[in-house]
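Dig into what follows:
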Amino acid sequence: MVASKLKQLGQQGLLALAIGVTVGGIQSSSHLVNTAEAVAPQLQTTSTPEAEETTAFSVCSEATDWQRPNLDQQQKQLAADERYSTLLQDKDFQQVANQFWQHNVLSFTTYGLSARMEPINLSGLWSVADDIWASCYSHDEGSAINEGNLAEAWLMHHRVVDVQWQDDHYVMVVEPNNSGMQVVQFTRREAEAELPLTVVTSQGTAVEYYDADW
């Protein structure tokens, strides 16, 4: 039901979600891998080039001093936007919006106006929206994403260290920070409907991320 509402509103150019205060929400598109399984491929010093290869990536937008707004600031920002003001109390939308708010890593394999506008607003990145639009989608990046040539990840309070293709999935190594955001675009090596991604810190801790496509 939530998905159909999103699709309908998106087609009308008025896609709207609401941010909620409830911890939790829908978890079906969240990804948290077993730490040992995530780290094990990195510890294999005898990996062949075919099994482990560096994947080209770029940081198209970065704000080192960005801080996620607090919940009061976030709700005030959304209430001032007519796309969200009437939906702030809708529990279905709260559940969906919570995913963007509660995760520090979002992944994308599709691109579209609403497919970026809503995540930007609901994750708290609205203060750096202009730079994201200008720096990450001003050329043919949107087409490359939709054609399956590029994938994208948004990092909040983390920074990317490396992206590796290991056997049949990507391993993104990140470092947590007290501030900062990055939009990372990287070359795809597969054509899966759902991005086969594992995110770990350089110390080997698995990081949960949210598959933000809809």
In short: The longest helix spans residues 91-102. Helices lie at 2-11, 35-39, 71-79, 91-102, 113-122, 129-136, 141-146. The radius of gyration is 17 Å.
